[in-house]
Amino acid sequence: MRLRALLGLSTLLAASSLAAACGGSKPPAPKAAGGAASADAGAGVAATRTQPAASLGPLPPLATMPPPGVSGSKKAKRRSDPALETCAGAMPRAKDPEALVRRVGEACAKTTSAVKLRPAGALLRGQGADAAPHAEHKVRVEAGKCYRMYFATDEGVRDVVVVARDSAGDIVAESPGPALPEGGVMCFSSADEVTLLVAVGSGKGSYVVQTWSD
User: Fold this and answer.
1) DSSP letter assigned to residue 67
2) d(Cα 212, Cα 103) in Å, to the nearest integer?
3) Between 2.60.120.380, 2.60.200.30, 3.30.160.20, 3.40.50.10950, what CATH number should domain 76-213 receive?
4) Which of 25, 32, 34, 78 qualifies as a FRET site for 122, CA 20 to 30 Å off?
């Protein structure tokens, strides 16, 4: 079988050489399967594959991210005070929340704290419940002064958080009670109007807040 194929190939080569020597033209190249339509389609596919994608234009710049650690108020700073860390106790609930607030404030005023605090302003009172929105109270503060809030609820409230925010909306401090801040004071570099947010997380009842300042 292999010998027959080789003989056929040598006969074809000989015939081609004879035709070329006699001045004959070269045999036409075999057509591709499918004819001209297939050739045109192939060219179209090749053009599609090599055509560059349309430009989408420049992308918008990414939003600027703040540096890590930049948070909190720019109008006030919390100042830690070891003498104030434990004087307020850990239970912000009582049958008489007003009496508890006064007692806690007076106990902390007797400590060796470097900041001597005394009551500033009237008592703030309100009602709260876990199914109700938080309550808000406005407190005016002075430049160069430090503040601490004492608060308590009646026994119907099982969980409460008080947050202090400056006029720009930034959080100065937050605490589950009975003192805000828990371990010190908040000192303001400029006069401002602070918003106290009182949010009851569980239960419902009354609360009392008192502001102390140096």
Assistant:
1) P
2) 13
3) 2.60.120.380
4) 78
DSSP H helices in the chain: 2-21, 35-50, 97-109
Nearest Cα neighbor of 83 from 139, 148, 141, 145 is: 148
Distance of CA 105 to the CA centre of its chain: 36
Each residue's pLDDT tens digit in the chain (214 positions)? 333 433 343 444 344 443 434 444 444 454 544 444 444 444 444 444 555 555 555 655 554 544 443 357 999 999 999 999 889 887 888 999 999 999 999 999 999 888 899 999 899 999 999 999 999 999 999 999 999 999 999 999 999 999 999 999 999 999 998 999 999 999 999 999 999 999 999 999 999 999 999 9
Q: Nearest to residue 188, comparing CAs of 208, 168, 160?
A: 168
Does the predicted model carry a pTM greater than 0.85? no
